[in-house]
Amino acid sequence: MVRNRTSARRDVARFDRWAASYDRSFLQQRVFEPVHQALGLALEPLDALRVLDVGCGTGILTRALARRSARAVGVDPAPRMVAKARENRADVPASYVVAAAESLPFADSSFGAATASFTVHHWRDADRGIAELARVLSPGGRLAIADIDLPSPARWLLRLVGSPHAGWSRRELADLLYRSGFSRVRATTRGPLGPRLAIVFADR
Ligand SMILES: C[S@@+](CC[C@H](N)C(=O)[O-])C[C@H]1O[C@@H](n2cnc3c(N)ncnc32)[C@H](O)[C@@H]1O
Fold first, then answer.
1. How do the domains of the chain map onto residue ranges?
2. Which of 5, 14, 15, 84 to mutate to test the pocket of ligand 1 (most atoms within 8 A of CB)?
3. Per the CB 3.0–4.6 Å rule, which of 117, 128, 151, 194 could disulfide with 102?
4. Ligand 1: residues whose CB is within 6 Å?
5. Which H or E element spans position 14?
6. Which residues contact 17 (CB under 8 A, 6 or more apart)?
């Protein structure tokens, strides 16, 4: 599951350009925010935990997690997304780092929970990113992922043309997680996109 380096770089550059208006996107209200709620609720209770939000964008989910936890850390390789997240900083224990999922700048077992919302399909190397999440989560740590799950013909067609939006099926996401040592992988189809959306939970 390794993507072409140029295409992955292009994705990050596109998010950098989108950063200024990202929060006003219709996708935010219609799709992302309800999904953020589902991810946050599923990870509760977070009280004393440090939570990592990978591919945090402008930090909307990171801030929501910070309100319910000891500290939330957002990481994203698009510097302007991270700049916007820092600018949006509310009075919550949240901080942000410019970094990619494939190379997380954190010690082993340093988080109790983690999220990846609509970002895994943009990663250059999903296996490596999930392995990094397994490394930085402490044993028993909880992970919640939301991603696109298109019907197979659409997914294969988009893969043929090299689009990141091909996403992963639930089965592929589950395989990815088991390969990195996660357990109790479970999925739900509840959410604003119905079965087109994979919301997957797993334990470290
Ligand atoms: C559709 S946005 C989702 C942002 C946020 N999670 C949300 O739900 O609003 C995808 C994000 O993934 C980030 N991204 C792209 N490649 C990444 C990588 N290799 N590791 C982590 N994040 C990445 C992009 O920069 C972008 O901010």
1. 5-203
2. 15
3. 128
4. 11-12, 15, 32, 54-57, 60-61, 76-78, 81, 100-102, 117-119, 122-124
5. helix 5-22
6. 80
Token digits of residue 45: 């209770």
Q: What is the three-class DSSP state of 121?
A: helix
Q: How far is CA 7 from CA 27, 59, 64, 174, in A?
A: 22, 24, 31, 24
The two tokens of residue 2 are 């390794």
* Alpha carbons 38 and 115: distance in angstroms, whole number: 11
Per-residue tokens: 12: 């990050």
Q: What's the pLDDT score for residue 191?
A: 60
* 21, two tokens: 């208006």
Number of C-beta neighbours around residue 71 at 10 A: 16
pLDDT in tens, 37-67: 888 888 999 999 999 999 999 999 999 999 9
- Report domain 5-203's class: alpha beta
With 0.85 as the threshold, say if the pTM is over it: yes
